[in-house]
Amino acid sequence: MRKIFSLVGAVAFVASVAMPAFAANTAVKGHVVDTKCYSRLGAEKVAAAGHDACNLKCAKAGNTMAILTSDGTVYDITGDYAANNNEKLIPFVSKEVTAEGAVSEADGHKTIDVSKMHASKGTK
Known about the structure:
Number of strands: 5
Oligomer: single chain
Order of helices and strands: HEHHHEEHEE
Strand order of the largest sheet: 1-2-3-5-4
Mean pLDDT: 84
Strand content: 25-35%
Number of helices: 5
CATH architecture: Beta Barrel
Number of domains: 1
Helix content: 25-40%
Shape: globular
Distance between the termini: 64 Å
Largest sheet: 5 strands, mixed, barrel
């Protein structure tokens, strides 16, 4: 009986650890912004059109970029889109986008490993 409980416990542990690896892609819609400017200036200023050049400069420098949703949630962008100084992300900086990818959270900090991204309709 003890072996069965140990086995069940081990299986439950492995399943809980592996669950994020099997998470389905989630769509996140929002504005691509620089996280440093966001933490310093706040949501309204960093997403304003007057801050576009700074967001782009920060992205090209390899700063961590994020998606700021309309409800104020911030998802740091990770994965291929963040690689090589945000190379794939550059065309989307300061634009309203919909990104698909695996979302995770640790210590109240959200990230999205973007697998696909496109500009929202009506965005230049």
